[in-house]
Write a structure and sequence with these properties.
Elements (H helix, E strand, L loop, with lengths): L3 H10 L5 H12 L4 E5 L2 E6 L2 E8 L4 E5 L13 E2 L9 E5 L7 H17 L15 H9 L1 H9 L2 H12 L4 H16 L4 H4 L4
Helix pairs in contact: 4-5, 6-7
Amino acid sequence: MPDIGVKLEAFYAKDGPYKEGIGILRKLALQTELKETLKWGAPVYTINNKNVLGIMAFRSHFGLWFFNGCYLKDPDKVLENAQQGKTKAMRHWKFYSVEEIPAKKVLMYVAEAIENQKKGLVWMPEKSKKTIIPPQLKEIFHKNASLLASFKTLAPHKQREYCEYLESAKQEKTKQNRLQKIIPMILKGHSLHDKYHKS
């Protein structure tokens, strides 16, 4: 198995329309205290083993991605939200030609990203909301131990779906109707969306 160094050199040596561009970005990154490694098949630059930025090349552009770019001041408004990613923190800086790379500004952004990482400015996903059981369901649980036992075996997000579905009903009559519909589903261990969908 080739080591990371060999794989990195192969990445940057590969012919493509943005070979020169990503090579320039690499030189800039290596002027800093960041350590070069390879993750997800692409170069990633870290400090204290924490991801700070990556270098990418796609069909229509190349550029940098900052793992916690949401904390960058971005005075030049060059960063884009990486909406397709799982994280809300990541930001992309896209380039379409070598001439577009402002070396000094890139180094300024990278320096800020390094400082932010040192300060611990890292996006943490929100913890799952605590499930609040509606009083109507609580009352049934007191009377029906097997229903409560079945409810507890459901995954937390499934429990929350049932509670939010019941709580979202505005009228008491609607809540009671929904309650009667979900009781047999909970007893069978089904999730809200297995057999019943909100209209």
